[in-house]
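Batch 3, record 17
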Amino acid sequence: MDRYAIQGGEPLVGEVQIGGAKNASLAILAAAVMTDSKVNIENVPDVTDVNVLLKAMERIGVKVERPDRHTVVMDSSNIDSCVIDDEYIKRIRASYYLVGALLGKTRQAEVPLPGGCNIGVRAIDQHIKGFKALGAKVRIQHGCIIADADELRGNHVFFDKVSVGATINIMMAACLAVGKTIIENAAKEPHVVDLANFLNSMGANIKGAGTDVIRIKGVEKLHGTTYAVIPDQIEAGTFMLASAATHGDVMVRGVIPKHLESITAKLCEIGCHVTEYDDAVRVSAPEPLTSTQVKTLPYPGFPTDMQPQITVALGLAQGTSIVTEGIFENRFKYVEELIRMGASIKVEGNMAVITGVQKYTGASISAPDLRAGAALVIAALAAEGETIIEDTSFIERGYEAFEVKLRELGARIERISSDKDLTKFHLRFA
Ligand code: EPZ
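Prediction for the assembled complex:
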């Protein structure tokens, strides 16, 4: 199992280029099976979750080509099964997008219940409610969601809870349903909008994505398209927080600054300087960080996927901060690891009370999930001394070349697979 070795204490300085959004890519790749024509998707990040989804789609007969590292060409004209039977697919949450996509296209789907990061219960009742509203029969059997319909009919779907996944799933199925669907209390995340734009580029008729009411008029079929995925809001936010926590000065390039506003606002509040450009943000932190309060909320609120990263930065801020997790109930597991690095944090329920410390110190820790893993890397970069982070495969699920991009900003980080690698790391940096 690979680990990261990190020698902390250097501010990150320089420029970093952000890749395509993982979560938008997962939805778009799944949606691409809905047409029999060729689909060309650009700016797809080369990360494990994406690659696992593509492999599962190949197994049901989708032809997948990668003309270059970030372009995927898909031909789904010869799908020979609607049963996704792949041990590994269970580990990614986005597998369930294939339910909406296949149900829309073929009126049937059988997909293992989703896994993904262990950050809470992660129910799917809203997905099921939406599919049923469109006329599908849905059951859970032998660990799979099985959905089928003689006909899908547009309907009014009112979500009891804002859910990114349920909004995406119902939007996909409704595209090829007969008649009009109205989704109320829809998620407004940038990747929901990106998926709607992608589907519209294939001939779908979706209006209102990005607001809490989405209106979809079903069409008979979808055609091929060429589409570029939006930049990854969370990868960008992670580098912004890494600059803040290390008192660095980083130009984060290739982003949509509007998507980063809630993060930018918090960074300004805690004493960072943030300058927005057309497609870049520059974050520097010349002064000590100061405390604040953060609550994670659906977009445009502060993203839950940035909660561990801001907690790490606030652990080094003067005063007492409070971070409240408003989306997932089990997203503070990494705090134990951070405490081993010297943080002073008390978690009570969905709230972390953080008393800022002067510095973290390096330790042997492990990444409990994707975003927490990235946050612990930030802590290690800011810390005095050496940190070894185990289970870095979690991080690779969603960050492409994370350690390479960090090294280009001056970080002393290496991926190591053996004691020999660690010795080399010591010779280079210790
Ligand atoms: C998506 O997960 C993202 N995953 C997550 O990113 C992200 O944290 C999350 O949205 C929130 O922004 C992908 O896009 C693949 P939800 P999703 O449905 O769709 C509850 C990352 O690190 N809920 O919006 O699973 C649920 O339990 C990952 O990249 C129900 O109660 O999130 C949670 O409390 C982690 N019933 C809340 O809603 C349902 O039917 C939001 O979940 C569905 C959800």
